[in-house]
Protein backbone atom coordinates (compact mmCIF):
# COMPACT_ATOMS: atom_id res chain seq x y z
CA UNK A 1 0.00 0.00 0.00
CA UNK A 2 2.77 2.39 0.98
CA UNK A 3 4.56 1.59 -2.29
CA UNK A 4 1.51 2.57 -4.33
CA UNK A 5 1.23 5.87 -2.46
CA UNK A 6 4.90 6.65 -3.05
CA UNK A 7 4.57 5.83 -6.76
CA UNK A 8 1.45 7.98 -7.08
CA UNK A 9 3.15 10.92 -5.40
CA UNK A 10 6.22 10.45 -7.60
CA UNK A 11 4.24 10.44 -10.85
CA UNK A 12 2.16 13.41 -9.69
CA UNK A 13 5.27 15.42 -8.88
CA UNK A 14 6.83 14.42 -12.20
CA UNK A 15 3.73 15.54 -14.10
CA UNK A 16 3.67 18.88 -12.28
CA UNK A 17 7.39 19.36 -12.91
CA UNK A 18 7.05 18.65 -16.62
CA UNK A 19 4.08 20.97 -16.89
CA UNK A 20 5.98 23.81 -15.23
CA UNK A 21 9.06 23.05 -17.34
CA UNK A 22 7.03 23.25 -20.54
CA UNK A 23 5.72 26.65 -19.54
CA UNK A 24 9.15 28.00 -18.65
CA UNK A 25 11.28 26.82 -21.53
CA UNK A 26 11.84 30.26 -23.00
CA UNK A 27 15.27 31.60 -23.90
CA UNK A 28 16.25 34.97 -25.33
CA UNK A 29 19.74 35.48 -26.74
CA UNK A 30 20.68 39.09 -27.39
CA UNK A 31 23.38 40.97 -29.26
CA UNK A 32 24.24 44.39 -30.65
CA UNK A 33 25.10 44.34 -34.34
CA UNK A 34 27.06 46.96 -36.30
CA UNK A 35 29.54 49.51 -34.97
CA UNK A 36 29.48 53.23 -34.30
CA UNK A 37 26.41 55.22 -33.36
CA UNK A 38 23.89 53.19 -35.35
CA UNK A 39 23.27 49.67 -34.06
CA UNK A 40 20.72 46.87 -34.34
CA UNK A 41 19.45 45.44 -31.06
CA UNK A 42 18.74 41.77 -31.84
CA UNK A 43 16.76 39.36 -29.64
CA UNK A 44 16.57 35.73 -30.73
CA UNK A 45 13.57 34.15 -28.97
CA UNK A 46 13.11 30.39 -28.56
CA UNK A 47 9.88 29.11 -27.00
CA UNK A 48 8.87 25.54 -26.22
CA UNK A 49 5.49 25.01 -24.59
CA UNK A 50 2.80 22.34 -24.89
CA UNK A 51 0.39 23.75 -22.34
CA UNK A 52 -1.18 26.58 -24.33
CA UNK A 53 -3.98 26.87 -26.88
CA UNK A 54 -2.60 28.41 -30.04
CA UNK A 55 -2.27 30.88 -31.59
CA UNK A 56 -0.56 33.04 -28.96
CA UNK A 57 0.29 36.70 -29.51
CA UNK A 58 3.74 37.78 -28.35
CA UNK A 59 4.94 41.11 -27.03
CA UNK A 60 8.56 42.06 -26.37
CA UNK A 61 9.05 45.21 -24.30
CA UNK A 62 12.46 46.89 -24.47
CA UNK A 63 13.45 49.31 -21.70
CA UNK A 64 15.85 51.76 -23.33
CA UNK A 65 18.07 54.31 -21.54
CA UNK A 66 18.24 58.04 -22.22
CA UNK A 67 21.58 57.62 -24.03
CA UNK A 68 19.73 55.83 -26.84
CA UNK A 69 17.00 56.90 -29.25
CA UNK A 70 14.77 55.15 -31.77
CA UNK A 71 13.40 56.80 -34.91
CA UNK A 72 9.61 56.25 -35.15
CA UNK A 73 9.69 56.76 -38.93
CA UNK A 74 12.27 54.00 -39.19
CA UNK A 75 9.92 51.67 -37.30
CA UNK A 76 7.23 52.28 -39.93
CA UNK A 77 9.65 51.39 -42.72
CA UNK A 78 10.77 48.34 -40.74
CA UNK A 79 7.17 47.11 -40.46
CA UNK A 80 6.67 47.43 -44.21
CA UNK A 81 9.90 45.55 -44.89
CA UNK A 82 9.87 42.76 -42.27
CA UNK A 83 6.33 42.65 -40.87
CA UNK A 84 7.53 43.48 -37.35
CA UNK A 85 5.04 46.02 -35.98
CA UNK A 86 6.09 48.19 -33.07
CA UNK A 87 5.69 51.57 -31.41
CA UNK A 88 7.21 53.70 -28.66
CA UNK A 89 5.42 54.58 -25.44
CA UNK A 90 6.35 58.25 -25.78
CA UNK A 91 7.64 60.82 -28.22
CA UNK A 92 11.44 60.60 -28.48
CA UNK A 93 13.62 63.59 -29.32
CA UNK A 94 16.14 62.30 -31.85
CA UNK A 95 18.28 65.46 -31.82
CA UNK A 96 18.98 65.77 -28.09
CA UNK A 97 22.47 65.02 -26.84
CA UNK A 98 23.02 62.56 -24.00
CA UNK A 99 22.36 63.70 -20.42
CA UNK A 100 20.20 66.63 -21.53
CA UNK A 101 16.67 67.25 -20.22
CA UNK A 102 15.21 66.29 -23.60
CA UNK A 103 16.87 62.85 -23.52
CA UNK A 104 14.75 60.53 -21.37
CA UNK A 105 14.33 56.74 -20.96
CA UNK A 106 11.50 55.11 -22.91
CA UNK A 107 9.94 51.78 -23.86
CA UNK A 108 9.62 50.07 -27.23
CA UNK A 109 6.71 47.65 -27.73
CA UNK A 110 7.47 45.04 -30.39
CA UNK A 111 5.03 42.41 -31.65
CA UNK A 112 6.76 39.41 -33.32
CA UNK A 113 4.81 36.93 -35.42
CA UNK A 114 2.46 34.96 -33.17
CA UNK A 115 3.27 31.59 -31.66
CA UNK A 116 1.42 29.05 -33.83
CA UNK A 117 2.82 25.83 -32.35
CA UNK A 118 4.58 24.34 -29.33
CA UNK A 119 8.08 25.17 -30.57
CA UNK A 120 8.98 28.41 -32.33
CA UNK A 121 11.93 30.69 -32.98
CA UNK A 122 11.55 34.41 -33.56
CA UNK A 123 14.22 37.00 -34.30
CA UNK A 124 13.40 40.58 -33.32
CA UNK A 125 15.69 43.31 -34.65
CA UNK A 126 15.27 46.88 -33.42
CA UNK A 127 17.35 49.72 -34.96
CA UNK A 128 18.71 51.95 -32.20
CA UNK A 129 20.95 55.01 -32.27
CA UNK A 130 23.41 56.15 -29.62
CA UNK A 131 23.26 59.81 -28.67
CA UNK A 132 26.26 62.10 -28.99
CA UNK A 133 28.00 62.70 -25.68
CA UNK A 134 28.94 66.15 -24.41
CA UNK A 135 32.71 66.71 -24.59
CA UNK A 136 34.67 66.51 -21.36
CA UNK A 137 38.23 66.97 -20.13
CA UNK A 138 40.33 64.03 -21.25
CA UNK A 139 37.71 62.67 -23.66
CA UNK A 140 37.78 58.92 -24.15
CA UNK A 141 34.78 56.59 -24.30
CA UNK A 142 31.59 56.13 -22.32
CA UNK A 143 29.72 52.85 -21.93
CA UNK A 144 25.99 52.75 -22.64
CA UNK A 145 24.24 49.79 -21.00
CA UNK A 146 21.00 48.21 -22.20
CA UNK A 147 19.22 45.95 -19.73
CA UNK A 148 16.94 42.98 -20.16
CA UNK A 149 13.59 43.13 -21.96
CA UNK A 150 10.32 41.48 -20.87
CA UNK A 151 8.43 38.92 -22.97
CA UNK A 152 4.66 38.55 -22.69
CA UNK A 153 2.14 36.13 -24.18
CA UNK A 154 -1.62 36.27 -24.83
CA UNK A 155 -3.20 33.04 -26.09
CA UNK A 156 -6.51 32.26 -27.75
CA UNK A 157 -7.47 30.34 -24.61
CA UNK A 158 -5.73 31.28 -21.39
CA UNK A 159 -4.35 28.12 -19.78
CA UNK A 160 -1.80 29.92 -17.64
CA UNK A 161 -1.55 29.49 -13.89
CA UNK A 162 -4.65 31.16 -12.34
CA UNK A 163 -2.40 32.70 -9.70
CA UNK A 164 -0.06 34.21 -12.30
CA UNK A 165 -0.04 37.99 -12.34
CA UNK A 166 -1.59 39.59 -15.42
CA UNK A 167 -0.32 42.81 -16.97
CA UNK A 168 -2.45 45.41 -18.72
CA UNK A 169 -0.55 46.21 -21.91
CA UNK A 170 -1.49 47.42 -25.41
CA UNK A 171 -3.24 44.69 -27.40
CA UNK A 172 -1.29 45.46 -30.57
CA UNK A 173 0.58 48.22 -32.36
CA UNK A 174 -2.63 49.14 -34.18
CA UNK A 175 -4.95 48.68 -31.20
CA UNK A 176 -3.64 50.57 -28.18
CA UNK A 177 -6.48 49.45 -25.92
CA UNK A 178 -5.29 47.32 -23.00
CA UNK A 179 -5.36 43.52 -22.89
CA UNK A 180 -4.36 41.01 -20.22
CA UNK A 181 -0.88 39.61 -20.89
CA UNK A 182 1.07 36.89 -19.07
CA UNK A 183 4.76 37.48 -18.49
CA UNK A 184 6.92 34.56 -19.62
CA UNK A 185 9.75 33.42 -17.39
CA UNK A 186 12.63 33.66 -19.86
CA UNK A 187 16.33 32.88 -19.51
CA UNK A 188 17.99 35.96 -21.04
CA UNK A 189 21.65 36.20 -21.98
CA UNK A 190 23.65 38.25 -21.69
CA UNK A 191 22.08 40.13 -18.79
CA UNK A 192 23.38 43.47 -20.08
CA UNK A 193 24.52 44.70 -23.49
CA UNK A 194 27.17 47.42 -23.60
CA UNK A 195 28.10 49.83 -26.38
CA UNK A 196 31.05 52.26 -26.20
CA UNK A 197 30.52 55.84 -27.39
CA UNK A 198 33.38 58.29 -28.09
CA UNK A 199 33.53 61.44 -25.97
CA UNK A 200 35.13 64.63 -27.28
CA UNK A 201 38.17 66.06 -25.47
CA UNK A 202 37.69 69.68 -24.34
CA UNK A 203 41.44 69.94 -23.67
CA UNK A 204 41.97 70.05 -27.43
CA UNK A 205 39.44 72.85 -27.98
CA UNK A 206 42.05 75.55 -28.70
CA UNK A 207 43.90 73.44 -31.27
CA UNK A 208 40.67 72.40 -32.98
CA UNK A 209 39.58 76.05 -33.20
CA UNK A 210 42.88 77.15 -34.74
CA UNK A 211 42.84 74.38 -37.35
CA UNK A 212 39.16 75.07 -38.14
CA UNK A 213 39.81 78.79 -38.73
CA UNK A 214 42.81 78.03 -40.95
CA UNK A 215 40.78 75.61 -43.05
CA UNK A 216 37.82 78.01 -43.23
CA UNK A 217 39.84 81.01 -44.37
CA UNK A 218 41.96 78.87 -46.69
CA UNK A 219 38.87 77.42 -48.39
CA UNK A 220 37.31 80.88 -48.67
CA UNK A 221 40.47 82.25 -50.31
CA UNK A 222 40.61 79.40 -52.84
CA UNK A 223 36.93 79.83 -53.76
CA UNK A 224 37.35 83.60 -54.19
CA UNK A 225 40.50 83.08 -56.28
CA UNK A 226 38.76 80.56 -58.54
CA UNK A 227 35.79 82.88 -59.11
CA UNK A 228 38.09 85.84 -59.85
CA UNK A 229 40.13 84.03 -62.53
CA UNK A 230 37.03 82.55 -64.17
CA UNK A 231 35.53 86.03 -64.37
CA UNK A 232 38.59 87.62 -65.94
- Write down the overall geometry: elongated
Rounded Rg? 26 Å
The CATH architecture of the largest domain would be Sandwich
Strand order of the largest sheet: 5-6-3-9-11-10
Strand portion: 35-45%
Largest sheet: 6 strands, antiparallel
Helical fraction? 25-40%
N/C terminus separation: 116 Å
| Poorly predicted regions | 1-22
Report the total helices: 3
Helix and strand composition category? alpha+beta
Q: Report the CATH C-level class of the largest domain.
A: Mainly Beta
Q: Averaged pLDDT, please?
A: 85
Q: Return the domain count.
A: 2
Walkthrough of the structure:
It is a single chain. The chain is built from three helices and 13 strands. The chain is α+β, with helices and mostly antiparallel strands and 232 residues long. It folds into two domains: 25-200, Immunoglobulin-like (Sandwich); 202-231. The protein has a six-stranded antiparallel beta sheet with strand order 5-6-3-9-11-10, with helices on one face. A five-stranded mixed beta sheet has the order 4-7-2-1-12, covered by helices on one side. It has a two-stranded antiparallel sheet with strand order 8-13. Strand 10 (166-170) and strand 11 (178-183) form a beta hairpin.
Write the layout of secondary structure elements.
Layout: H1 2-24, E1 26-33, E2 38-48, E3 53-64, E4 68-69, H2 72-82, E5 85-88, E6 106-111, E7 119-130, E8 140-146, E9 150-157, E10 166-170, E11 178-183, E12 186-189, E13 193-199, H3 205-231
Parallel strand pairs: 1-12
Antiparallel strand pairs: 1-2, 2-7, 3-6, 3-9, 4-7, 5-6, 8-13, 9-11, 10-11
